[in-house]
Structure prediction request, 269 residues.
Amino acid sequence: MKCAYVTTICNGDGYVPGVEVLGKSLLASGTKLPMVALATADVPPSARAKLARQGWQIRDVEPIANPDADHLLFPRFASVFTKLRAWELTDFDRVVTLDADTLVLQNVDDLFERPPFAAGPDFFLPDHFNSGVMVVEPDAAVFRKMVEQLLASGSYDGGDQGFLNVFYGDWYAMPVEHRLPVGYNMAHFIYQFLRGHPTLKRNLEKQAKIIHYMVQKPWQAHAVLTGGSAAWWQRYFEVHPEQSQHWRDRVHELEDWTFDHVAALVLGG
Prediction:
């Protein structure tokens, strides 16, 4: 099969740090598969050139407008449906889509052995899947059907995840091969909680394969106590060694330490 990892970047260059770290983590995992970034016209040429130098194949795509633009849960949801264009990549037999706020901890090429469609459970609604990591078989006819249905049904959460859970409404009843273990799409706060617990962390190294920074993004200035902060910044400083300083590493380790102790306090020690 011809396979690739795919992410989407739109709305300017705000998510460039995320794509940089995702790419670095994929390369560090030892994968030899192509990395494709679907980029809308509002992503500046400088950002495109930077990502291309780091190994990303840039594909120009038209954004898909959110049909419920007046009631967005988050402003970034305005263009999230552009992710559906992964189904148009018919020059590949199978792709794994990764959100730009994910971090690969170990090789996950085995995902391409999964039957599409495949995804992992959402933390908040376990009988629904989280669309941050998906195994997809590109198909132009399926894409056209998605666009038609999107205009008619919209999305229960205002984003691509709500829509896709309706489109693949039988996901929870599919054979187990279609349901990814939680380690392939682990929420950053769950990762940090497991890592900070002396008993739970024993199996973490084996279990955790992809961290998903679902809520707070480490590179955004307002992000505090994200969980998994040190892991993300380690890869970022590998991309940008000129920004790496010992005190910065200590700050991000302290963020994770504080997260652990706040979690212990909230949960009763």
User: Anything to note?
Assistant: The longest helix spans residues 246-266. Helices lie at 16-28, 45-53, 140-153, 160-167, 188-195, 204-207, 229-239, 246-266. The first strand starts at residue 3 and ends at 9.
